[in-house]
Design brief:
Layout (H helix, E strand, L loop, with lengths): L3 H50 L2 H13 L1 H17 L8 H11 L12
């Protein structure tokens, strides 16, 4: 028995495996691209809703909060989007309403009173 048929068979199997791996990579990239596109679309939709429902002053205040406390800013954005989608926002949110919303959504800062004896 010669080793040539086995080598040919091994080469054929290698080629099949290589094609399978390339297909799997292609499908994985397609899913990642689809998820990224979906995420970008949702982000654009959120920005449009915020632009429509916030005054300039409120938008500036929200951006300031997002820079200092990103988690609080994200929570406020989600709340505004939810209110807008449910139709519970009448008119635009101005800076005063934004202050109230921020006050409601931020936890009270803990203060420590030190008493000396």
């Amino acid at each position: 028995m010669s080793g040539e048929p086995n080598e040919d068979e091994l080469e054929r199997i290698r080629e099949q495996k290589k094609k399978q791996l390339e297909e799997q990579r292609g499908q994985g990239q397609g899913q990642e691209e689809a998820m990224e596109a979906q995420r970008q679309e949702a982000e654009a939709q959120k920005k449009a809703i915020l632009r429509q429902n916030l005054s300039d002053g409120a938008r500036k205040r929200l951006n300031t909060v997002k820079m200092s406390k990103p988690d609080v800013g994200e929570k406020v954005e989600q709340q505004i989007v939810a209110l807008a989608q449910s139709g519970r926002i009448q008119g635009q949110i101005d800076e005063e309403k934004m202050k109230q919303l921020l006050k409601e959504l931020t936890p009270d800062s803990k203060s420590f009173d030190i008493k000396r004896r």
